[in-house]
Amino acid sequence: xxxxxxxxxxxxxxxxxxxxxxxxxxxxxxxxxxxxxxxxxxxxxxxxxxxxxxxxxxxxxxxxxxxxxxxxxxxxxxxxxxxxxxxxxxxxxxxxxxxxxxxxxxxxxxxxxxxxxxxxxxxxxxxxxxxxxxxxxxxxxxxxxxxxxxxxxxxxxxxxxxxxxxxxxxxxxxxxxxxxxxxxxxxxxxxx
Length: 192
Known about the structure:
The relative contact order is 0.31. Helices cover 0% and strands 42% of the residues. With 192 residues, the protein is mainly beta.
């Protein structure tokens, strides 16, 4: 089993991949996950970087012409306007982009597909990562969390996460996660 995020320190319950963040409401949401591998004979090393890092990352996809979207898919315009849009049906877009409207709750169409504006899009800078709860207060928004040059399996590293929703509107990416926490390129070695 590879190194990953878990919901418990014993590393028995995997955090879903990608870990879905809850932005339902303005304010801060703080929680703790655990990074590691339950197998003591595994060693994790960075592939090219100097450190093993967890990083907030955008998962928001750009609109595509002649593409079949499913109900709930969340996208943004090809030329970002700062908003995210959710597909309201299972249908195919046309060859040209919708006339994207910037008002939250407004609708637009392309081909047979209708999208609704969910409001301001989520940004990696909405996330802070730290190795301690107190560290969240000084963690740079959107910055990578360095975990070391080598990690031995069998020991969980607590990762404290703060998600800040600065938009006053209630927003959610529950149907199609828009941001995630990812691991940089690494190599897992198994020792005898």
